[in-house]
Design brief:
Elements lengths: L16 H18 L3 E2 L5 E3 H8 L4 H6 L1 E4 L6 E4 L4 H10 L8 E10 L11 E10 L4 H18 L5 E6 L3 H17 L6 H6 L16 H5 L10 H16 L5 E2 L11 E8 L8 E7 L3 H4 L7 E7 H10 L11 E5 L5 H13 L4 E3 L10 H10 L4 E5 L1 H5 L2 E6 L8 E4 L3 H10 L2
Helix pairs in contact: 1-5, 5-9
């Protein structure tokens, strides 16, 4: 049997990188709470028809990227979720979640797409998303964009641009679609294989081509904004007015489309030049017809999703170094016979909210005091708690600062060590 390794494109997350992800997720949870969004968790595995009906049969995700399989017990077609919005809508329908009005929701979790792995684009990747269900106004579109903008400020990102577009309503898109087909048919000799395949099934996606030889053709193509009616234009203009009132810079990109068929009206992306071809870090828009596509009543909705890997890669390129919560103390223990007393003491500290790592024995024993101090320093702890023979005999612990030379070393009675905990917390 060969060496067992992770599946290609599905990566392990190890310390200390996992601490950075936890730091970012904590920032998101706090932000979502301030915007009154509540957490929802849907299954990783869904029935395949959910994505075929919700995302569109001719999308790249459904055609080429989904991990699909049959349930071995009953033969049901199942799929590892490639995105979360369809599952959130399915859950809202199944549980009558909107019976008493609209809901603001957010999710975190892994998604799966069978793509060519590259930096910032993996086959298993974490997404965070926000969904506002049951709200039709442009002010909710703006609220979601303002939330994402606030998140960049929270983590210190500045090199992120906002691009906007409107996809209008189905009749407007149909008129634009016919104009696109006629235009591209006149230039069929310039179309690449992918564009020819999409021409009659999903011509709007041709506008999203990355082929440099087609950029001139695409730039001159009919623009959807020219086909929008009064109501669609009013919605789009209202959104722009709110963003301008909040000093949010944006660019209208008439070529901006989304990879799923369920979008209408507002679509947007936050992009950066720092990540090369994987420059989209957050994207979303309005999907007022998805509830109907999945068998429900007409329900307005809007949302966005961000790729955690890309956001953190961007943060790294920008020199940002968010970390998890620092370790408060490292317990240095020289004799195994002291362990019962040490453990009960540390439990009282942990109950008071102090994080403590305990030095434990190995094949070589407990190790010297010097080696333990090296481990304490490497742990990142702010204090070393020394449980040596003299301390145990005196029923005390020595508290040695590891990060601040201006703080004096002290001793504390074991019975009263928990009273030291509030003092430690106040110095965080």
């Amino acid at each position: 049997m060969g060496k067992l390794t992770a599946v290609k494109g599905m990566n392990d997350l190890l310390p200390p990188d996992s601490a950075v992800v936890e730091w970012f997720e904590a920032k998101v949870r706090d932000l979502m709470s301030r915007f009154a969004y509540r957490n929802i968790r849907t299954p990783i595995v869904e029935r395949t028809p959910l994505f075929v009906r919700g995302l569109g049969e001719v999308t790249d995700i459904v055609e080429k990227e989904m991990y699909c399989f049959e349930d071995r017990l009953n033969g049901d077609p199942l799929t590892l979720r490639p995105e979360a919005t369809a599952g959130v809508v399915r859950a809202a329908l199944e549980h009558s979640l909107l019976y008493d009005g609209g809901k603001r929701l957010y999710y975190m979790g892994p998604m799966f797409r069978h793509e060519r792995p590259q930096k910032g684009r993996y086959r298993q990747f974490d997404q965070i998303g926000a969904e506002a269900l049951g709200f039709s106004g442009a002010e909710v579109d703006a609220e979601l964009i303002l939330m994402a903008t606030a998140l960049w400020a929270e983590i210190g990102l500045t090199d992120v641009r906002l691009e906007l577009n409107s996809l209008g309503q189905p009749p407007e898109r149909l008129a634009h679609r016919q104009a696109l087909i006629a235009y591209f048919e006149q230039h069929a000799d310039v179309l690449d294989e992918d564009a020819r395949r999409r021409l009659h099934s999903n011509p709007l996606r041709i506008l999203d081509t990355k082929n440099p030889q087609m950029q001139g053709l695409v730039n001159a193509a009919p623009q959807l904004l020219d086909f929008l009616g009064e109501a669609s234009l009013s919605h789009f203009n209202s959104l722009k007015t709110i963003l301008e009132a909040n000093n949010v810079a944006y660019t209208v990109n008439p070529r901006l489309v989304r990879g799923m068929d369920y979008y209408n009206l507002t679509v947007f992306e936050f992009t950066t030049d720092r990540l090369g071809s994987q420059g989209t870090v957050c994207a979303g828009g309005r999907y007022d017809y998805l509830f109907e596509q999945l068998g429900g009543k007409s329900t307005p909705a809007v949302g966005w999703a961000l790729g955690v890997d890309r956001v953190l890669e961007l943060a790294k390129t920008a020199g940002l170094t968010g970390t998890g919560a620092p370790l408060d103390a490292y317990a240095i223990v020289t004799e195994t016979s002291a362990m019962p007393l040490v453990l009960s003491t540390l439990q009282s500290l942990r109950a008071a909210g102090i994080s403590v790592q305990m030095h434990t024995s190995s094949l070589e024993g407990m190790g010297s005091m010097k080696s333990q101090f090296k481990r304490a320093d490497a742990s990142g702890a702010r204090y070393a708690l020394v449980f040596g023979p003299d301390e145990i005999k005196a029923k005390q612990v020595t508290i040695k600062p590891l990060r601040d030379a201006a703080v004096a070393q002290t001793s504390q009675a074991l019975a009263d060590l928990a009273t030291w905990a509030p003092t430690l917390q106040s110095t965080v």
